[in-house]
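Q: Structure tokens for this one, please.
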Amino acid sequence: MTKYEDESLKDELLRPLFGVQGLVAVITGGGTGIGKMAAHALLAGGAKAVYILGRRAEALQACRDSSPRSEAIFPIICDVTSKKSLQDACDQVKREIGYCDLLFANAGVPEIPSKILDRSSVKTIQEGLSGLEMDSYEQIYRINTLGAFQTAVSFLQLLEEGNKRAEVPQKSQILLTSSVTGKTSASYGTFGYAASKAALNVLANQLAGILLPHKIRVNVLVAGIYSSEMTDGMLKMTCKSDPTVEGALDSSCIPLERIGSPEDMIGLILFLASKAGGYISGAELVTDGGMLSMPPSWATPTPPVHRGVRILNGIEDNHL
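A: Here is the predicted structure, written as tokens:
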């Protein structure tokens, strides 16, 4: 080990390496789930200010009230499908603080199929797919893909200003929340959701290339199953114990036999947001307990199993 490597591992150097002291962050979907975890983690790590954007005032306020540093959380009512709403939020951040170092485009909606797709024949598959509502697909895409894209576009000048002010050592970053469903061959009937996340991955890759000359980094957080409003209903039916504890789920669903814990997500976010992750751009970081590593790329749907009950799309199937 070189002298430099040895000194870099000292405690007084490790703390600022993974800390986010002085960081200004903007988080969409900031009131619940991953957004709430991120807001609290960044503040615990020393962030200067965190703006949380969302459509529900009560969720945003609850996120603020539950933080020990509530004075540094600033809720903003915002609809990511509205350019005007996004611009209003951007203008508020500009007036109040003038820049941001991290934009976390995290807002998204799930897709809940009305029934289990019968795959027994081409005819039943066609009948099932023909009943899909195109309007709901358009809304999912509008929020999960176009909403995230427009969020990134709206805050570009504030991210550039963050680089100019250089209050933190790492360059400004856009972080987007995607999903393993956008990278698999498996399907639980959530075709619209999966397509919206796959499209987001492509947009992020191209944004990273366009913004690279301006030193604005773009990365994607590809999430597996974490506790959130999107997944809690399924988890309550599936797990009779804490789903974050190893052994709560069958290894055929998640090789590590549990869902992601808050610590798993917090650790990854702090790494990406801090100086430690400052050399990363154009990357997709997967946090899924090994789901995508199951050959062939999670191609055969294997829902969680508990005591002989199989859960498909939130519906109990006792015929296992």
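A few notes: The longest strand covers residues 173-179. Confidence is low (pLDDT under 50) at residues 299-320.
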